[in-house]
Amino acid sequence: MLTALKRLLSTQDQEPAAFSFKDLPQDKLHPSFALQEQHIQWEQIKETGICSYSAIDSLEHYKHLTLLNSSVHLVLNQDQSPSETFSSKALYAAHEATFKHIHPWAGENRTTSAMQFGTQTSPPSKRLPLEMAVLDEQMKDLLTQAKTPEKKLEAVAFYHAKTIALHPFLDGNGRSTRSVMALQLMSVGLQPNAAISTLAENKKDYIKALDLAIKDNDVAPLANLIGQSYGIKVPKPSFAPYEIKPSQTAPQYEVTLENIKTELKRQSNYAQVLR
To answer: Per the structure, how many domains does the chain have?
Structure first.
């Protein structure tokens, strides 16, 4: 299956091997892009990762799929199996692959306290290991029940909203989470670039759908935005069976089987209240 994913990715619309920043029109280069970095080749990026934020800015300014595909290639090169694309392991692998040449803490949880992003607040960093362990169990449950295209998209939307809400990294949460989404869509037989393009081209709707998922526990707007590219529509509303918005007060920090079970029950019960 891993070989199949790599073969599928090789057919996606991406920059040719001869791609070089110096070939881009000047108006397509981000102002912060350093001239000395224009020798970086697409093949280098695909194999070794992004080397600076100016490179990231220019790639996204020119064609966001180039950055996305580089992250996906790097994760696949780490032998990330399809069964793990819905796990926390996939998220950490994507972040490390993309940012390892920029941040020494790439692929590691932030050590800061709660972070503010948009209208949302992430949980304290002490909760992240437990929250990620709980997410792994939740995804196993959701994927077991995901027998239809609609349910699969709901699972993708839940994972995406939940990981954004947790905001485990000091920086790069959105980029790494979208890379994982691409892997997840591929693992359920969907071409990912179309959906990622839709999110990029409808940024306001994307942010609004994320906020609704986190605030109201309704994944339908986000799932339907992703599903536009495939003609898949999720009924509205579609409330997640687990709480998406992280708790700021739940006391358990240690990752134990008992704490995971307790947190699963708490998040399930709270989700019922939000319906």
So the answer is: 1
What is the domain-level CATH number for residue 115?
A: 1.10.3290.10
Residue 166 and residue 145: Cα distance in Å, rounded? 24
Concatenating the DSSP letter of every residue in the chain gives -HHHHHHHHHTSS---TT-BGGGS-GGGS-TT--GGGTT-BHHHHHHH----HHHHHHHHHHHHHHHHHHHHHHHHHTT--GGGTTSHHHHHHHHHHHHTTT-TTTTS---SS--EETTEEPPPGGGHHHHHHHHHHHHHHHHHH--SHHHHHHHHHHHHHHHHHH--SSS-HHHHHHHHHHHHHHHTT--HHHHHHHHHHTHHHHHHHHHHHHHH-B-HHHHHHHHGGGT--PPSP-B-SS--SPPSS----S--HHHHHHHHHHHHHHHHHH-
Contacts of 86 (CB under 8 A, 6+ apart): 139, 143, 155, 159, 184, 187
Residue 189 has a pLDDT of 80
Q: How confident is the model at residue 19 (pLDDT cuts 50, 70, 90)?
A: very low
Q: What is the pLDDT of residues 104-146, one digit of tens each?
A: 888 999 988 777 777 788 888 999 999 999 999 999 999 988 9
Percent of the chain with pLDDT over 70: 69
Q: Give me the residue label for tokens 């939940």.
A: 162
| Token pair belonging to 129 | 């290991």
Distance CA 50, CA 66 (A): 11
Tell if the pTM clears 0.70, that is, is over it: yes
- Structural domain boundaries enclosing 15: 2-274
Please determine, for residue 99, whether its predicted confidence score (pLDDT) is greater than 60: yes
